[in-house]
Amino acid sequence: AVIASLDSAGKASNLLVWDIGSNQASRTLPLPPVPGLTDVITYLRVSREDQYVVAGFPNSASGMATYLVYDLGAPVGSPPLQVDFDAVVHCTELGAGEAVTGTAKGELLVWALATGQVERPICLQGGGPAHQSAIKAVSWSADGRVFASGGADFVVHVWDMTSETLTFALEGHTDD
């Protein structure tokens, strides 16, 4: 498990990798000074293979979602990789070595946790973006085979992640 620790002002200062069995921190990951990190961390996840920790927050300086990616296999003290997307912070799901982020433009972008580089988009048949407007929610199944994305276009798309193709388009919801 990973938890964020707070300083005396109530701001996140470190991430603690917590060993559940011994009920103690096994590693401390310091948060670097990042312009725009004026609030608390609002997104905190561990990748499927337990190699990466990703902390995210809405960046007040850039207006983007900023993610700090820590590689737990790197030497202690290694700085995190900073990745920014025009997205809602919680619209990212982690897989094994990669993440998928839903953007404000309706794109689903697959990016490498090791480099922060976008590897490919997940598109509708014909190459269009995953949604016609901003993506507001994403979820990846525990087995990694199914991915769902919900947009401000009032459509939930269900994707087969083995082929990265659309399986279902569920229309009819009327609330964000």
UniProtKB/TrEMBL annotation:
Q: PROSITE patterns from the entry?
A: WD_REPEATS_2 (PS50082), WD_REPEATS_REGION (PS50294)
Q: Does the keyword Repeat apply?
A: yes
Q: Which InterPro entries match?
A: Quinoprotein_ADH-like_sf, WD40/YVTN_repeat-like_dom_sf, WD40_rpt
Repeat (WD) positions are 128-169
Mind telling me which residue stretches traverse the membrane in this protein? Answer: none
Name the keywords, alphabetized: Repeat, WD repeat
Q: Does the keyword Ubl conjugation apply?
A: no
User: Which Pfam family, any one of them, does this sequence belong to?
Assistant: WD40
Q: Which SMART domains match?
A: WD40 (SM00320)
Which PANTHER family does the record associate with it? F-BOX AND WD REPEAT DOMAIN CONTAINING 7 (PTHR19848:SF8), WD40 REPEAT PROTEIN (PTHR19848)
Its protein name is WD_REPEATS_REGION domain-containing protein
